[in-house]
Amino acid sequence: MKIPIIFVLLMLLSSVSGCILNDEMMETAHSPNSGSCEGAPIGHNDDGKLRIITYDINAISDEMINQFTNQSGYQVEIIRTEDAGGILEQMLQTKNAQQADLMIGLDNSYLQSAIDNCLLQYQHTNVENVSDGALSHYDGDFAVPFDQGYVCINYDENFVDGENVTIPTSLWNFTEQQWNGKVTFPSPITSSPGRSFMISTIDYFENDEDNSTDAFDWWRDMKNNGAIFTSGWTESYETHYTGGYGEWTEGHIGDAAMTISYCHSPGVEAYYSSNWTHSTSLMLPKTSFHQVEYAGIINGAANVIAANQFIEYLLSTEINTQMPEANLMYSVLNDTDLPETAGYRYHSDIPTQPCAITNDRISQEMDLWLSKWIVEVEY
Amino acid sequence: MNNFVIEKRYFNYAKSLIGVSAVTIFAIISFAPLFFAIERLQMVTGVSVISAMSTFADRPANLDSLTFTLVEASISAIATVLIGLPIAWHLARSEWKHVRLVRALLAVPFVTPAIVAAMGFLALISEGGILWSIGIDLRLETGFIGTISDTFGWQHPGHFIALILAHAWFNLSLVIRFVEPPLATFDPRWEEQLSLLPGGNSRINRLRNLWIPFIGPAVFCAAAMTFLFSFTSFALVKWLTPFSETMESSMANMGGAAGIMGYRVDASLVILSTSAIQFLILMLTLILITVLQRRNNSRVSMISENVARHNRGKLSKVGIGTIVFGIIFTLAPMISIFIASFRIRSSIGNGQFTERYSFDAWVAAWQGDLSYVSASEALANSLTYAIVTLLISLPLGWILSSTIHSLEKSNNMKLAKFVDVMSMLPLAISAVMVGLGILLGILRYNSSLFGFFLLPVLPHVMLTTPFVVRIMTPAMRAIDPVFEQQAKLLNLNPFRIWWHSRLSFLRGPAIVAASLTLAFSLGEFGASWILVRTGSWDTLSILVDQLMSRPKFDPMVQPVAMATASMLMILTFILFVIAERFRPKGDGGGI
Asked: Using DSSP, how many helices (H) and how many strands (E) does chain B show?
């Protein structure tokens, strides 16, 4: 009977141990800066290495890093998180002793939170070659875009054949019987594309003709219509979606004909399948989200010079124009596009009316939206 | 006082000091992270752990994960016994030529890294896999699995069955390890004699009066341990049941956002309440295991296995069939991974694909073409962590076992039990909880430790030391004190007495413990998944998951993941074969 005693002691000790922990030891999120951020303490020594925090991003290949090391003389160490949300969380966790110098991969649905929490510092990168579109969401000095793409609905053309199942003309169509159990979403709580799409639905329902319903009514109806929610993009696209490469992978289930991915995902499918795909994107106004991914120097970086050099390297024509093949995203440079090879560009739609919610609003209201989403979908 | 007495006294002082230090160090490394993690979560959520537990049921997803975890762990325990018992029975009661080899083969799954097992079962059940080929579609749930779903309104029975099979596969050796020794050392003449008595003249009577009392505790002990491991299953759940979450996977998914003041307080509350409830359940299971193991230990070793084996009958067809089934069941997922590592999809245009077989994925994995670290670098990391873990766990576990044994010998039974139970407690703290404990309890107070290369060793030590204790303690108890007395009569110094009367007898169990420590450390996934952030520290098991989690537009990604999993599998297999060579015959203690 010693184990219960140990457990009870543990519980009692933990409840009285507040005295040994103080507020200084606790970093706090959501303390929006009042306009200026003081320099944060450096969490590691400048040992000549450049430490980059990123998610498991394809863009940063071994080959690319070796090339940077050869050019600059800086060794690079990658600190990896699961996804863009993980980058923000890791930076918040280590706010008082940052472990990385450079952040790569926060997108515009997370960037403002990082800025509000003083996680990034000013940088002066020349963005002359960066397109206005890529700078449209944020053109300040805390971060620069390095790739972009549109998050949108993808569907399987074998299922939506125009006869038995018609192409949806409204998001409400997905709440109908024919879509019961056929839709899969990556969760906005844990997935960056999932979050981007949820933001789009806010904009969509704020601008539709029906003022009696909002996005969360739709999410509730989607849940009631058997929508499949997964923690990440991979599980939705690969395990459940019938239109993508998932059918060739171990563990594919293939029970959903619609998912959330990028508008150019069908192009990527075609690129790897000799110009063939039966996946396409749905071009409904306001249902797509222009996702821009950023690089920024962390407030508390030990090696600012190397971080700046890496950003310039990332934005160089040589590296950035490789984004479509290396990272399956668009380049942010002027006058660039997806390659025409194997139908990559041909099968990639570009939405004309994407979501127009600003970064500021996203930062201010995200917690509220997520709470509402949780209430409608999880309860 | 002569020199011998002085030497002995100093030796005993030193021994006591080392024992107390080991117990203290183990208690600190095991409980301090958890203690600080709970404290931090309480500060972030503003509620005590008791209040958090009372809010557990408010979130439907929590109840779903609790229900699913309890159901899958219970069914896994039952299924493991149902599959394992006939194998153990026939293995023990028939004369087998290569019984040690068969036993070793059947035990391999237990040390197979969970992520490898997950990949193996995915390959086994997916379209084109072995099970799918014989009409059992557990993944897409077509055919009779679909009929079961439609008839009973059971959502995703195929996925559930796949998980149960995977857990049974994983824990099969527990049933064999616990049940086979008492059966193998049981003299069949006793059964013959009992059958002449009224209480044993029918099969049912013999079952009631002989077999259930004799092997019942061992069966329940194995079932309870299977429940424990299935309850904390993470990698298998993550990959095999995409529609369901266990408490462990639920915590892993939300762990990253927990413990940050003012950020995702809901995540912190979920972690606090779930971990406390999971800890309570695991603790109760451990108590049950301890009680059952004590009963079981009193029933084994009734007679030497070698003597008993000579009394076995010929092999029966049923016996051969059962063992062959066991071997096929064991090998199928591993063979599936191996095959999948050579199979590469190629497009031939117009939506048509062909499959070619080549070593390309092995070459790409070794060179790291698709990942930040190559499989060779990940292998070096895995081995480094495993060796450092071994260097800490083995001496620590040895000293803890020795302390328990010394306390037992000096009749200090209560204290001995206390240390024994404490050494097992980390088993009640699942791998994910250990990882989160270190993340929330240490790293968020001292972020610079994120840059400490040997950080993953800490959870590995916490998770492997209990196994060392479980192997070494029974071995120490089994040493005949006569050897020590004889060594003393030779007037040897205390160190030489220890060397000749203990170390020489414990070499075998120590090698078993060392090999298992290396194997468990190599395959550890849950805690490493949470803690390993620096890309260049990736271990093989993390690399497999990382590759499998990335978009697979490129047809090489999946075969490379499978090739990496195969490398990990081969490495673990080699270590296990080494361990088996040194395992004493008829050994039923430990794992």
From this structure: 27, 2
